[in-house]
Amino acid sequence: MNRNKILIHGIGNEILTDDGIGPKLVKRLEGNLSKKEIDFKTAFLGGLELLDYIQGYHTVIFIDAIRTRGGIPGTVYQLSPENFNTTIHLSSVHDVSFLTSVALGKKLGLNMPLFIHIIAVEIVEDRMFDDNFSPQIREKYEEIFNEVKEITESILAINNADIAEN
Amino acid sequence: MKTYSIDPITRLEGHGKIEIFCADDGDVENVYFQVPELRGFEKFLEGRPVEEVSQIVTKICGVCSGCHHMAAGKATDAVFGVRPTPTAVKLRELFLMAHYVHSHIAHFYALAAPDFVVGPTAPPAERNILGVIAKVGIEIGTEVLKQRRIAQEIQALLGGHQTHVVMNTPGGVRKGLTEAQRKDIEEKAKGFIEFAKFSLKIFNDVVLSNKYYVDIILNGPYSLKIYSMGLVDENNKVNFYDGKVRVVDPEGIEHCKYAAEDYRNWVEERVESYSYLKYPYLKQVGWKGFVEGKNSGVYHATPLARLNVADGMATPLAQEHYEQMYETLGGKPVHATLAMHWARLVELLYASERALELVQDKEITCPDIQAELPNVPKEGVGIVEAQRGTLTHHYWTDEKGIITKANIIVGTTNNNAAISMSLKKAAQGLIKKGIIVEEGILNMVEMAFRAYDPCFSCATHSLPGNMPLEVIFRDAKGNITRQVKRN
Questions:
Q1: What is the domain range of residue A106?
Q2: Does A145 map to a domain?
Q3: Residues A59-98: pLDDT tens digits?
Q4: β partners of residue B31
Q5: Single pTM value for the model
Q6: What are phi and psi of A8, to 5 degrees?
Q7: B13 at the A interface (CB within 8 A)?
Q8: CATH number for the domain including A42?
Q9: Closest partner residue to B130 among A51, A90, A107, by Cβ?
Q10: Which helix H or strand E contains B211, and what residues bound it?
């Protein structure tokens, strides 16, 4: 049973250099947001595994790393599942994509979230084990945190009314 | 020369690429398989207390984390020269059985079944778990997720967390099992057995009853005559947690049977210039290149390999299916790559039965879960069977237990050479002069690879906008003639 209707979920491996930025941001957001009735989780998993985590929530916000063509390290993107095509992984259990998992959950009649948001941070290094960020991400970390917090607050503000109605 | 690329490899953990090189006449000349492997984990462990390592290694891989935890736990036991109490060993093995149940269910229904239930050449949009459910029904889909979730709940109960496991201590486990918890798991294990039997029935009805599929398995381009590797108990029966590593040659004759600490006498790791991933091979046979046969040190460590090396299964129902499999496929050892799916389901049944055996053992709720540590730490090796192959952890420490060096051979790495060879054989068998190479044909090439349930980059997961891509062209001698990078 979920304690709250909103989940903020950081995805990533905290010992894989910049890959861990999602969980690290979520840990810092906990206690730093104006709205208090929120569940916070961190893990490095995806696909089918995520289904177990997100069922029963009204709104889920994922915070994850991303690498794009020519992307500037530290850039923060606000996305929704519809922004992705079938190449999305969002981590995976054997590469069953996140979108496939969401579609599966709906097809099986699971209690899936009404709203799923993705906040992604452009990273540099995610293939070398290290519990520190790359210099580029370390330098911009405060800026990244503030932007992620601002986006999160704006999503929560929009969803508050909807949650109240439900 | 025409080059076909499959990139990314669908339904593979991490990101990989298969390149197929065709000659001017249209026949396949060569196939290269590449993965951008994560780097530096062994170095990352240096300088850390060995008793913390079993928790850190769960972050190597989000799929096999429980197996890494178990191999690390056993290696740490060995570093301290201690054998955990019988109850601790049984609890660890019970955890591993639950891990097998959830992983093998996920592989069969989400990864393997689409090729058979929906069809190997069906459109990609339908050839996935949603397509499987459309064919077999929503009730079965619900049951798949339910059994998988229950297995993970058992992992979380025993391990503290389903993925980030904190179960093992040197010489023991942190938490015992209450009688109420034992009873609960007992009922769940009975459910696993029924579901495993049901899954084998599906395999029988969908695959074995279809002449086309049986023909593909037995006579298609999916055969590889190489050595097999896997853990066996004192009776040479399959064991995932403990025992000795047994290797049999392509004729099924025992090549060696070694204890964990002797692995370096039998396994050597080779580096190829085009891949971060190493190519382990049998040291006493030697590396003769990517070739089959008794004189080549290439081996595989897969569900099929584990069954090939064993004299049988240690549980009754799994033994029945083991016998049926070998009878149907013409006796041991089996070299049909696609038979790995069948072997995996036999293992699912074994893991389910073994879980029930363990949870019905009176010792499982004994409070004696921690052995004393009388020795100064030094060096230790731990081996378990991960779902994807024999998993070896080797640590060296100073007298304070600080890691000075580590070596890890992960499950899939064992199969690196075998996967490359399977892909090449499949491509050569399927892509011929005059054949139009459509997506379905390329998927059938991938099937050779998917049977291994490979897991390479483990925890790599960042949202893919543009995954790093490298295309390499080679001449007949393997020299790079052109290199294109996209980033």
A1: 6-165
A2: yes
A3: 999 998 887 777 899 999 888 777 654 333 343 434 567 7
A4: B20
A5: 0.89
A6: -110, 120
A7: yes
A8: 3.40.50.1450
A9: A107
A10: helix B211-219
